[in-house]
Amino acid sequence: MLIFTKIGELQEFLVQKKTGKISVGFVPTMGALHPGHISLVEASKKVCDLTVCSIFVNPTQFNDKSDLDRYPKTPQTDLEMLKSAHCDVVFMPSSEEMYPEKDERKFDFGYLDKILEGDHRPGHFNGVAQVVSRLFDAVRPDKAFFGSKDYQQVMVIRALVKLLNYEIEIVTCPTLRESDGLAMSSRNALLNPKEREVSKIIPKLMQEARELKKKGKEIPEIKEHIVSELNKRGNYELDYFTICDAETLKEINSFSEAKKHVALIACYVGKIRLIDNVLLN
Ligand code: AMP
After folding, report:
1. Ligand 1 centre from 35 Cα, in Å?
2. What residues make up the domain containing 93?
3. Which of 29, 32, 102, 201 could be cross-linked to 186 through a Cys-Cys bond (beta carbons 3.0 to 4.6 Å apart)?
């Protein structure tokens, strides 16, 4: 496994490799890796000749400085996990390497970056677009792998690829979960044992949303159920629970037969913000 910290050296290596027409798969991460990240590496290895994983905690996508400061960093374990997964290349740049000058670019993805995560974390998707475009420029992959746990993020990345005319196929991979259903996340490590225990309500309620829809309940009833279940318990602060058209991410108030629907949640457990989503059909 090769490790690069400089864009120039990474590109020199990849250009040499690419003369042999090999396909490059790319998995961008912010480190503190868990099996969910590794599943993306495995998905890439299945279909690409060479897999590059990046580890970079991108400051421009954090709207809350304390969230950035406490973001977990476990570089040694990350490297061991990537080595065990037979990842070919790891790119671990510094902030100075990624942003030698302030990135002043403003991306506009229409309503997509203004709702849900975009609404609750102003500037978040602009930061994501900044870093992902820089990483795409550095790696120039054929395919890039993202987790559907960050449902809205994948849609923003697809919009970014269109906007900047990248010839990169975006592959969406399923969410890996802990045995009690909690979506794996680097932030789970920040939960204390009590918070970790109570956070399993999040996937449980998402499953209940699915079941309620199967039973023919309409969206207002489902929302009311989820909100009241959360309110019954302490320790939670709901940012949003909503149901959207799974393809456009437009919020909807009633189900229609022909469409696919997704329920999305963002919720604080103590000080830690967790997100999850589930397809309802
Ligand atoms: P992050 O390090 O949180 O920025 O995540 C890097 C990539 O891993 C993103 O594409 C995430 O959607 C994906 N990811 C995070 N958690 C999971 C999970 N539980 N299952 C699958 N992919 C995930």
Report:
1. 9
2. 2-173
3. 32
